[in-house]
Amino acid sequence: MxxxxxxxxxxxxxxxxFLVLYILLQRRRRRIAQQYGSLGLAQDPAGRKLGGRRHxxxxxxxxxxxxxxxALARPQAQVSLPHIEGxxxxxxxxxxxxxxxxxxxxRMEAAKLAARDFVQRQPPTVRIGIVAFSDSGFSVQAPTADxxxxxxxxxxxxxxxxxxxxxxxxxxxxxxANSGPQDTHFYSNLTPVPTPTPEPVPPGTxxxxxxxxxxxxxxxxxxxxxxxxxxxxxxxxxxxxVGIGSAQGxxxxxxxxxxxxxxxxxxxxxxxxxxxxxxxxxxxxQELSKVYxxxxxxxxxxxxxxxxxxVFAGASLLVLMLGGLLSLLWFSRLP
Length: 335
Known about the structure:
Elements: E1 2-3, H1 14-35, H2 56-72, E2 75-93, H3 107-120, E3 126-133, E4 137-144, H4 147-155, H5 165-177, E5 209-215, H6 225-234, E6 238-244, E7 250-254, E8 257-261, H7 265-275, E9 279-282, H8 285-293, E10 298-307, H9 309-331
Parallel strand pairs: 2-3, 2-5, 5-6, 6-9
Antiparallel strand pairs: 1-2, 2-10, 3-4, 7-8
Helix pairs in contact: 1-2, 2-9, 3-4, 3-8, 5-6, 6-7
């Protein structure tokens, strides 16, 4: 047990002083009783000998005061409390094909709209991070409970270049592993430095974390996304893959080039199955919103340092009241 105001524990030293004062008063009473014993000063109103019973109310009084003085120091203890918590990484494909308008108004805007709705419906204990990936991946926002920061990060996303599913997964895993308060990530249009493969950790380390991988195209960059998905599975991180678009594909005109892009559903299904996640085909904005309805945070019980001042204060009041009640019942007076 620790204390927020440990200096206040010095007040507990008053209890021995009160005890010494009580002993001195009892000696004075005995001298008076010896001198005027015939007046019955050593008896209760019913004429019975007081004996050791007369010390019980005072014992309760001193115990209650000691507990109250401890409460003044604001004690803390490790208490196991239930929490609805989790970490969700929204990994957005920001390849150029996300500008296609077969999903209104565009694939990118539909994905962002559904993501904003998901963020606003989460409890404050769920941390959300944003990752963007095209031909490489980078963290846009470290996991945080700051909803304004998350929404601002989503709003900044815009289509860029090719598609590397593996980089999206690897950067998401690194973002989960390194999501301490000291980490800061900034969005940049500059080509990022390739992210190294995360160091192995015991399987199931991040069972309260999940990755939502939103993509519309075929994987056309290295490394192998299934190898990256295996790394997520070893860490207990489920990947929910969301296919935006159709298997038939669509033709885009980007910077003077004609590009045909189509959804690789088998790849996304393998990634989801390998990690214990689920694959969704978001054929419309409404279907995309349903994806987030199936992502539920976990209820976990973990020890947490909690202030227990109220426990000590309440217990001290009960002890003081009990001492006063016994004194009234036995001696018709307060101690």
